[in-house]
Amino acid sequence: MNTTLQNFQKNSSSNFSKNNLCELRKELNYTQEDFAELLQVSQKMISYYENGKIALPIQKAIFIAKKFNCSLDWLYCLSTTNHENTNIDFLVDIKKILFRRNNDIVFSISSSYWKYLKDKQQINNSNYLSHERDKKLVELNSTYNSSSDDDVIFEFSIKTDVFSSLLRVNNRVSYPYIVTPKSDNEIDKEIFDKCKDFLISCLSPNVEEEDI
């Protein structure tokens, strides 16, 4: 069982009122409204969490830690190390999927990867129990062949300067990049959503359960 979780269960929640939620949110370029939607609470509640007026519930913290690969100890200000010592792997070699055409960055998706995305979506939208869904995702990831040389069936492009403005490397959260719509450029929402979903889907998800 995670040490932070053990301590939380042994002590009153008031001992865990201090947290790094605000710092994490700013690093991710999220608003309080964004986090409120993510945690399914009110924006006012996010403010209470960040100001220490109400302790961040452990289950909310576990959700955040898993989603953004940060440690519970850091989230509760018990450690200065803010992420787990894990590597983020890619399911595909992005260099084989992205290429430049004039002033555009072109996303080119093969039939095998398209099938993988559909299968993954089906699993995520299924009625499986959490551990069953995670097992299915692990099996899917292990069988996906990223070197498969097959036909391109889906393609879209985005302007190079816009693409560059969407990505920023974050040194404090252990993801290779963070996709954010915060930009001075006019961005087509549909194209941005495609770009975001595609880039995130290229990451191999860490679905190992905490030993709770």
Characterization of this structure:
By secondary structure, the chain is mainly alpha-helical. The chain has two domains: 3-75, 434 Repressor (Amino-terminal Domain) (Orthogonal Bundle); 94-201, no CATH class. Helix content is 45%, strand content 11%. The chain is built from ten helices and five strands, in the order ααααααββααβαββα. It has helices at residues 3-10, 21-27, 32-39, 43-51, 58-68, 72-75, 111-124, 130-143, 160-166, 189-201, and strands spanning 98-101, 104-110, 152-159, 167-168, 178-179. A three-stranded antiparallel sheet has the order 1-2-3. The protein has a two-stranded antiparallel sheet with strand order 4-5. α3 crosses α4 (43-51) and α7 runs antiparallel to α8. It is globular. The model is unreliable at 169-185 and 204-212 (pLDDT under 50).
